Amino acid sequence: MDNPALEEFVEEVEEIIEDLEEGVLLLEEQPKKRSLIDRIFRDMHTIKGGAGMVMETELAEYAHHFENLLDKARNGEIVCTPEMASLLLRSIDGFRSFLDKIREGGDVDQQLINETLEQLREFEKNAGKTATKPAAKKSVEKTKGTDVSQNESTPDEKIKPEQSSAPEEKKIESDKSEEQEEVQWDDEDEGEETAYLLHLKFDSEMLRKGSDPILLIKDLTELGDLAMIPHLGRLPDLKNLDPEEIHLWWSAKLVTTHPAEEIENILIFFQDDKNEVNFEAAESPPGDPGLASFGIYGDQESEEQSKEQGQSKVDESEVETKSEPEAEAEVKDDQKAKVGEDSKNEITQEPDSPEEQQKTVSAPEIQKTSPPKADAKKDTGIKTTQSIRVTIDKLDNLQNLVGETVINQARLHRLSDKIMEIDVNLGEMLSQFVEDNEKSVQELQDQILQVRMIPVGSILNNMKRTVRDYATRSKKKIRLEIEGGDTELDKTVTEQLQGPLVHLVRNSMDHGIEDSETREKQGKDPTGTISLKASQQEGYVIVEIEDDGKGIDPKVIFDSAVKKGFVNETDELTEDEIYNLLFLPGFTTTTEVTDVSGRGVGMDTVKRDIEALLGTIEISSELGKGTSTKLKLPLTLAIIEGMMIAVGNQVFTIPLLSVNESLRPVPKQIKKIKNKGELVEIRGEYIPMLRLHDRLNITPRFKEPTEGLVVVVQHANRKQCIFVDEIVDQGPVVIKSMEDNFIQVPGIAGATILGDGRVSFILDVASLVN
Amino acid sequence: MKSKAKDEMENNQSKNYLGSVNLSDEDLEDMSLEISYSEGTRLITFILGEEKYGLDILKVRELISFPEGLTRIPGMPDFIIGMFNLRGLVIPVMDLRKKFKMSVEERHEFSVIIIVEVENKNIGLTVDSVSDVIFVKEENIQDTTELAVNVDTKFIKGVAKTKDEMVILLDIDYLLSKEEFDTLLEDKSE
User: Fold this and answer.
1) Residue of B112, B173, B110, B166 lying closest to B134 (CA atoms)
2) Do B85 and A746 touch (CB under 8 A)?
3) Percentage of chain A exceeding pLDDT 90
4) Shortest Cα distance from B176 to chain A (angstroms)?
5) Interatomic CA distance for residues B130 and B10, integer angstroms
6) Which of A56, A96, A306, A589 is deepest in the core (most CB within 10 A)?
7) Quick check: B98 pLDDT over 60?
8) What is the pLDDT of residue B26?
9) Contacts for A585 with CB less than 8 Å, ≥ 6 apart
10) Reported pTM
């Protein structure tokens, strides 16, 4: 794929598909939410348009079919049913297949495409037949018994009233009455609408900088009903009027079902020290269209106010003929006029209400916090957040270069130390420079890491589809809750987290959550819940997968492990140790194998994948209550803090995050136990000790830990003492994958390059601890 | 202390890889063009023990002198003699003499590491010395089945005959294949 336009298209569509998938899943829950249908329609439309541009006509046509379907949904001819959601989801798979074809060549999954199109035709035919009688269509479909099986598992709200034992005639009547009614979008009668008051005062120079209030207004109108009142106080005489300046400012009321953050997201592009753009939630009920009742005339200049009131009528007409930007506001012309009148009527009442009075007082205060600086012209650019799309390759290269710089910095350090021994003055100078440079390098490193961070929400949201598909196939009802999706993690880590996450969620669905009947019998909510929570703790990101299913019975695991010969019947294991058995290759407790899990390959793969990311995995469970799996992952894989330790003539690196402490034990701290090896007693705790030189087959300088050092490392909840010769250094190390040019070597998590240019291996703490 | 400084200098020198042969992309392109016109292969030839070996020059990334500071990889068989830092890349080095179970000689001034690139992996191979770049026509390459050489024939692709000598073609793709690498891990457990 050499065509950059095509490449960009594929990337774009990938993003759209994700949005699409999420949209469809939400729509299934709230089939009558207009904004969702609009969103899905827009996505389809974008795919179609883009595909046409890059001459992917088949894809464009495919998207076109589904766009048509959604258009019908938009017009209220069709209401989204579970089968329509399934169809849309399958179409998404179809789009993916197209993308695969474009990216890797080969063929589209023609069978899938044909099937989905066939289903679509079928669906549209049914819908078309009964389009004028949406209610009747439902009952027909129901009695016919469509081949889509999900229909039964998911009760349709609309069907219920009609299926009541009402006589036929009545039914027809009710159908008729429904016919006349327009589809009631949930968005409209949800009652979740909130009104916001906006204060939009722009820098008069704004137009010259290429920005335009109209953009803001356009965006806002997309969120809901926007009523605006212009303030003409700053308007100069006609002869002094500079058409390239903005003289007006606006008060606006936005009634929307969207959350306040979305308004914030629009306004943020316009918020700088010259523009006064802010908003607040209105306290009056959103149904009241009167702007004035919110006291937004609380302008600091009361003269302006009176002027406005007096001229209101004239102003209105002036505004209409003013300039392009304002013209957009005319869309709401009628409303505006009405609002204007309302305001005039109500303005006199304003002081009567203490609430409003408060508002008038608070308005100038708001302005104090962001005083207009008309004379501050030093600031040239407008503050807009722009973003560019960069391929991950470029970032990887950049990251590598930064890595090189970090290594060179370490070399400089060594060099300055050496020069210091020869020439103190020169050494001092160099060392000063090296220290200054260190700050820049550190900053550079932090910045590049920041750039690579993406929210884990994207992969958490992908689980929605996994859960939905499983739930429709099985008899279980499962709800997925997602928390902390905005937690950020390195892109590579995030991507590699996807596999293990799917596995864990499937495990929860398959082995954890019971079917509705069983759950009800046990007094649980018939719908099971799986929750995914992401959060950041120090240098780690924690991802928790929790279900409220049947939990894990330690006894069952133990017995199963005995049967398989992993442990002896006489072994006494702690609960944690028993859960750890789950990670053994080939371990399974289920006797029946399903298509999702139970083959005994899995948890060990999950564990390996997580450990390859230098992370840890822990399982905890309560029988009958549920299971929780906790993943602990480093923020990044590229650069970590490392402790360099020497064994013999070789230097190894231990990730500092795994190091608890280091010490030189006294002889009485060392205990030798038969068959269990050596233990070190540290503050009353006995921790097993590993002689690293034995493990790595190296001749050490010291034979006894009392001569060398012991480093205490921890992985998950297990501690281990590692006997080494000495600690050489500590600092940031760039992780190089062993697999890039070689193979994954057991016991080694990666390689790094030391200040002297030599390669040092990063020890895999997980394998040392076990 | 002084000797340490000297070490450092030598280190740096080895980092410059004096005398290394870098093949630019253009060179490689030229060669591939030539090859597509006439049926045959351009080989880089090197000496290992008594014999002359050759490998497809398109697999060769560069030649370097023996680096200071190879780091041994724990648990690997002895013919993987370690990893080193090639301008930020961490590259393993395989001692071909050890791999082919020949007598192990002390390294001398002509000892060279050939960095080859197979399936996006860069790997160093130690050879006694590099001799030449030759062009061999397809019809001059023979099967190895009836041939008796010191090396396990599974690593040999064939034998190329030129005017005055025989060159053993190394099957570098097999030598550095995933299957072969996987055996490293088995070796370790033995």
Assistant:
1) B166
2) no
3) 7
4) 9
5) 23
6) A56
7) yes
8) 61
9) A600, A601, A604
10) 0.53
Rounded distance, CA A10 to CA A7, Å?
5
Report the residue of chain A nearest B83, measured CA to CA. Answer: A759
Quick one: pLDDT band at residue A145, thresholds 50, 70, 90?
very low
Inspect the interface and report whether the beta carbons of A650 and B71 lie closer than 8 Å. yes
Task: Give me chain A's average pLDDT, please.
Answer: 75
CB of A603 within 8 A of CB of A515? Answer: no
Residues contacting residue A303 through CB under 8 Å, at least 6 positions apart: A233
CB contact under 8 Å between B76 and A746, yes or no, is no
- Say if residues B123 and B94 touch (Cβ distance below 8 Å): yes
Tell me the CB-side half-sphere exposure of residue A666, using CA atoms within 13 A: 2
Taking contacts as CB-CB distances below 8 angstroms, the residues of chain A near B82 are 759
User: Rounded CA gap, A71 and A124, in Å?
Assistant: 12
* Residue A345 scores a pLDDT above 50: no
Which residue in the set B74, B90, B182 is minimally distant from A696, CB to CB?
B74
Q: What is the CA radius of gyration of chain A?
A: 33
pLDDT at A720 over 80: yes
* Interface touch B8/A418, C-beta < 8 Å: yes
Residue of A742, A754, A756 to mutate for B, most B C-beta atoms under 10 A: A742
Mean pLDDT (whole number) for B121-148: 81
pLDDT at B84 over 80: yes
Backbone φ and ψ of A718, nearest 5°: -105, 135
Interfacial residues of B (vs A; Cβ cutoff 8 Å): 1, 4-5, 8, 11, 15, 69-76, 82-85, 88-92, 121-123, 181-182, 184-185, 188
Interatomic CA distance for residues A202 and A183, integer angstroms? 40
Structure tokens given for A415 = 């060099």
Gap between the Cα atoms of A576 and A618, Å rounded: 9
Q: Given this model, what pLDDT does residue A159 score?
A: 44
Q: How far is B98 from chain A (nearest CA, A)?
A: 18
- pLDDT for the residue numbered A646: 93
Q: What is the mean pLDDT of residues A595-612?
A: 68
Cβ contact, residue pair A747, B74, below 8 Å: yes
Highest mean pLDDT among A140-144, A260-264, A451-455, B180-184: A451-455
Return the percentage of chain B with pLDDT > 70, whole number: 69
ipTM strictly over 0.95? no
Residue numbers in B near A415 (CB within 8 A):
8
- The whole-number pLDDT of residue A643 equals 93
CA angle A610, A612, A616 (to 5 degrees): 40
SS (H, E, C) A658-703: HEEEEECCCHHHEEEECCCEEEEEECCEEEEEEEHHHHHCCCCCCC
User: Per the structure block, which two tokens stand in for A710?
Assistant: 């012991």
Contact between A650 and B85 using a beta-carbon 8 Å cutoff: no
Whether A572 contacts A539, CB under 8 Å:
no
Nearest-angstrom CA–CA distance, A466 and A139? 30
Q: Is A245 exposed, middle or buried (0-12, 13-18, 19+ CB in 10 A)?
A: middle
CB-based contact A743 B90, cutoff 8 Å: no
CA A655 to chain centre: 28
Instruction: Report which of residues A309 and A41 the model is more confident about.
Output: A41
> pLDDT tens for residues A467-504?
888 888 887 888 889 988 888 888 888 888 888 898 88
Closest residue to B90, CB basis, from A695, A753, A756:
A753
**Residues ≥6 apart with Cβ < 8 Å to A31:** A79, A80, A81
Checking if the pLDDT of A214 tops 60, the result is yes
A747 contacts in chain B (CB < 8 Å) = 74-75
Nearest by CB to A759, from B4, B90, B122: name it.
B90
